Amino acid sequence: MSNRAKIGLGNDSRNDSNPCVAKSDARGIAYGVRLRNIRESTGRSPQEVADRLGISLLEYDELEAIAGTLNRSTSLTQLLQLSSVLNVSTRFIFEDEGRENDRISCKELCTNIKSYLERTGTGISEFEERVGYEIRQTLEDPAKVMDWNVDCLRFVCSEIGTNWLTALP
Length: 169
Prior knowledge:
Structural class: mainly alpha
Strand content: under 5%
CATH class of the largest domain: Mainly Alpha
Helix content: 40-55%
Number of strands: 0
Low-confidence stretches: 1-20
Number of helices: 10
Number of domains: 2
Mean pLDDT: 85
CATH topology of the largest domain: 434 Repressor (Amino-terminal Domain)
Distance between the termini: 17 Å
Largest sheet: none
């Protein structure tokens, strides 16, 4: 679970009408279903994946079964571990095809955020309120991006006009 604190109106501050909130890929396949399909294609059981990740079977089952759980409760570090266990890229968990070379690093993402703040005259507190997450410390230490969950990454990237898939680890 990500330790990034939600600010503003809590978990209800983002809803399904927000274009940033997605629980499925472009073809309408839920991320949890994609994850299950990937896991099944590797021949691994849910228990085996849970054990390799160091989480309970219930926690893993929720990633596959409950819409939005993968986005909200998995840090980017945990997502990277999951993709390693399943031997796929993090990006493949969310979309079939992508330009794997089309990536930006955590440092580049933070540079882009700082440039956006400067260019638009937006203060960090206002930005945090818009995206619904506290990110101030991340701007000082880009490695902390890996503590974010997928939704945080999506909302931040949407605000600055960056494709969130390019910022996945």
